[in-house]
Amino acid sequence: MKKYRGIVFILSAVCVVITGGCGQSQKISEAQEMQEEVIWAELYCDVDWWHPEAWSTESGTITGDITEKTGVALKTTVPLQDADKQLSLMLLEDELPDLITVVDSTVIGQITSSGKVWELEEFLEKYCPDSHLLKEFPEDIKQALIKRDGAWYAYPSHINSKDAREIWEPCDSYYRDLENYSDNNAIMWNRSLLEQLGISVDELSTEEQVMEAWEKAKESGITADGEKIIPLLIDGSEYWDPLCPFSDKI
């Protein structure tokens, strides 16, 4: 199985870039000190609204400092149209770039099932066995990625999960409050059914109490209009949006 020296990066909004792998090398200009050789890795992105500045290897710049520490610089390609089609063609022709950041779910599936990209853990163990990502990457995010892709191929941007917040503390209490209190979601209780169960709304203020109430309703055998009751009714066709973030808080 041929594996490119590259990683699939899944992008949710803003590009997350990690230098790694090998691309074509070129010389820094003769005027630069020590004439060190820099590895230029190719990053391909399918997000047409993202227009990064050209990577500078000049000392004192952010990208230049990264290059000085890693020996790697990035050449970024962001097609204005048909980016995913072009990436699919590159996959068929065995000409994948070193690094890929992609949001299209179909292309993600094609890439991860192709056998032509590194599993991230394998890549890090081979080239950077002391990487903090092998020790600190949020386990809940990692398992979600494995469930989706079949293995850990991606480093997503905008990581925000329970495990991530435990690893990386917010720099200000504002962000903790934003996470805990910014969603205006709620559970609506059927008071008449609660009365039949012998439960008051005041007794439903903790996660344990809520779960016990649902279990009690499930086992009660109570009916409504001759039909078995539904202990929890999800919010219609749009339930994923409010339920998934909210369920982490109840």
What does this protein look like?
The chain is α/β, with parallel strands linked by helices and 250 residues long. It has helices at residues 62-70, 83-92, 105-112, 120-127, 133-136, 139-149, 162-167, 173-181, 191-197, 207-220, 240-247; strands spanning 7-10, 24-27, 37-45, 72-77, 99-102, 223-224, 227-228. The strands form two sheets. Strands 1, 2, 3, 4 and 5 form a five-stranded mixed β-sheet that branches. Strands 6-7 form a two-stranded antiparallel sheet. Strand 6 (223-224) and strand 7 form a beta hairpin. The protein starts with 6 loop residues before the first strand and ends with a helix. Mean pLDDT is 80; it is low at 1-7 and 9-35.
A few lines on this structure:
With 250 residues, the chain is an alpha/beta fold.
Write the layout of secondary structure elements.
Blueprint: E1 7-10, E2 24-27, E3 37-45, H1 62-70, E4 72-77, H2 83-92, E5 99-102, H3 105-112, H4 120-127, H5 133-136, H6 139-149, H7 162-167, H8 173-181, H9 191-197, H10 207-220, E6 223-224, E7 227-228, H11 240-247
Parallel strand pairs: 1-5, 3-4, 3-5
Antiparallel strand pairs: 2-3, 6-7
